[in-house]
Design goal:
This protein is mainly alpha-helical. The protein is elongated.
């Protein structure tokens, strides 16, 4: 779990998992593990939508009911929170999904 959250190779824990912001490397630079066989699809994005929705929606409702701000305040406040939260959570959650795929040999069972 820690290896996944560190965005490191699930086998050796030393190689970097990403080649850019969210592009997974083809192979681990340390141990040579083929990372192309681990496909997380939209699993991480789905959970991030649920997490951010569960946090942001009640806060936005609270802000609306307590202060009654104009709509532009909601846009200025919540849009950066949602974008920053999605980017901050997507890398480690996607890496954790890849680590779970490796741990449970998901790629081998799908062939």
């Amino acid at each position: 779990m820690i290896t996944g959250l560190r965005c490191a190779c699930p086998r050796c824990g030393r190689g970097r998992l990403y080649r850019g912001l969210l592009t997974v490397r083809d192979r681990c630079e340390e141990c040579g593990l083929d990372l192309t066989r681990f496909n997380t699809d939209d699993g991480a994005a789905f959970f991030i939508i649920l997490i951010l929705g569960a946090v942001v929606a009640p806060l936005a409702i609270w802000l609306e009911l307590s202060l009654h701000p104009p709509i532009w305040v909601h846009v200025v406040v919540w849009l950066p929170v949602i974008v920053a939260g999605a980017i901050a959570l997507l890398r480690p959650l996607k890496a954790w999904f890849i680590a779970q795929h490796y741990k449970y040999n998901v790629a081998e069972h799908n062939q």
